[in-house]
Specification:
- Helices cover 34% and strands 14% of the residues.
- It is α/β, with parallel strands linked by helices.
- Strands 3, 4, 5, 6, 7 and 8 form a six-stranded parallel β-sheet that branches.
- The N and C termini lie far apart (57 Å).
- The relative contact order is 0.11.
């Protein structure tokens, strides 16, 4: 302002008349602004989430066959990486499903009653949802459920602007154990939406459990749209989950970064390699994070959060793996 550097805004120590977003301060020697260095860091997730995350990690890494729920992949960084994955040339599911939904949306919309609420499980960016929202203008409300607060907030803001007549109520949480819908939706017809072939991430018992819970949330007589991938050539499937650019590898290994950050783990990411393997017997892709030493020695190592290492031969080694 007037060829001088100024500081904008005020602080708790500023006079009420000066503490406003449009105020420009020229006199830095006066402490009206409460100016100083601020060093931000990632905010921790809610306490309940940390406890649940720790429980799942300890339980999953204590199994003979290491495994963790895929929901923990979707922190802020993980959600952003997944959006990148959806644009990769090898990752056919997103493009295929968008094409299918474009053709099927009018027929699906014809079955949706007036004034219904669309409940999406694991909504992410809600990109595919827009195809159904465009076709089913009779929908009164949209309730996306997702574990990522960042994805929910961004998607809700975009949809409220694009569909001003639609009531958008984002629900943060684990969509496999959804909480009851808000009271205003109790008397509205309900339509469940679960695209993306995400149901393929579950074991058969997990899929059955999820479907029972979804039915309990939606209620008798509700509609449920589920996306399911069909079996492809093994090379096509493995390429889709092990892309040449390494985005999927970064997505999976980000889970170790999250364990280090939120649970004070000490996984050394440079010791790990990403792999995607088609399991014909289980009819699904397995994506283990295998340590370099495990690849060389032929056995899998794991590390507890206490910092102690254990291997199949009982030796202590500077290596860990998460499968």
């Amino acid at each position: 302002m007037v060829n001088k550097i100024v500081l904008r805004g005020g602080s708790g120590s500023a006079a009420p008349g000066l503490s406003r977003a449009t105020y420009r301060a020229l006199h830095f020697h006066r402490r009206w602004q409460g100016a100083g260095a601020r060093l931000p860091k990632d905010a921790p997730v809610a306490g309940g989430d940390v406890a649940a995350f720790r429980t799942d990690v300890l339980e999953g890494l204590s199994r003979p066959h290491k495994a963790l729920p895929s929901k923990w992949l979707y922190d802020r960084a993980g959600s952003a990486l997944f959006e990148e994955i959806c644009e990769l040339p090898e990752y056919y599911p997103t493009r295929t499903e968008l094409t299918i939904l474009e053709k099927a949306a009018p027929g699906l919309a014809a079955t949706i009653p007036d004034g219904a609420v669309l409940v999406e499980f694991g909504s992410g960016s809600s990109r595919k949802t827009r195809l159904l929202l465009d076709a089913a203008r009779q929908l009164a409300a949209y309730a996306p459920i997702d574990i990522s607060q960042d994805a929910l907030a961004a998607a809700a803001a975009t949809l409220r602007q694009a569909y001003p007549r639609l009531e958008v109520t984002p629900l943060r949480g684990d969509f496999t154990h959804p909480t009851p819908l808000p009271e205003p939706y109790s008397d509205m017809p309900r339509v469940g939406f679960f695209p993306g072939s995400t149901i393929g991430n579950f074991t058969p018992p997990e899929a059955e459990d999820f479907l029972r819970r979804a039915r309990g949330l939606l209620g008798e007589g509700s509609l449920f749209v589920v996306g399911v991938d069909l079996r492809k050539d093994a090379q096509v499937l493995e390429a889709a989950y092990d892309d040449a650019q390494g985005v999927t590898a970064a997505f999976d290994l980000n889970l170790l970064t999250r364990i280090n950050r939120e649970l004070h783990g000490s996984f050394a990411l440079e010791n790990f390699r990403h792999r995607a393997i088609w399991d014909a017997e289980k009819s699904r892709i397995e994506r283990p994070g295998v340590s370099a030493m495990a690849l060389e020695r032929g056995f899998i190592h794991w590390k507890s959060l206490s910092g102690k290492l254990a291997t199949s031969d009982g030796a202590s080694r500077r290596c860990a793996t998460l499968q």
